[in-house]
Design goal:
single chain, mainly beta, 4-stranded antiparallel beta sheet, 2 helices, 12 strands, 12% helix, elongated
Amino acid sequence: LENDIGLIPARAFKETAESKVGIGLKEMSGHLIVSTVAEDSIFADTPLKPGLRLVCVGNVLTKGLSKIEAINLFKESQGYLTVLAERIGLIVSSAFKDAIDAKVGIGLKAVNGKLIISSIAEDSIFAATDLKVGHRLVSVNRISCLGMTKSEAIKLFKEAEGKVTVMSEEV
């Protein structure tokens, strides 16, 4: 179950520090990726799946950690352990909207139940960000756009003021 900012939480109980966790990790392009989740893993019945990028183990962010350092976080843990992961390809873009009636300068289209960025104006507040035409809109200001209509998503942009954060993914 994905939360409103695209992070996928997985929680499991590890009886002792010596208990096996049953997941594999690999390093890919500077990120830690879940490579395997064993059938008997404490995470087997959670949303943690191979292919997800590891974001956090317990209360420690994994960005910049080596595979060995991340494995040690799992090894040293005991009791309830929460892991946060994300799908590869999620992009976070933030821009400043100086007034509620200011234009955001992006276009949306609905394609097969997904909201796709169809245009970004040259003077858009998102013009200099990583948001690109063709990206699928995932959230606006931590509000999930998954399952929303185009009108509902446009309303989020119109009602936003100040920092506007968009999460999108390449499709």
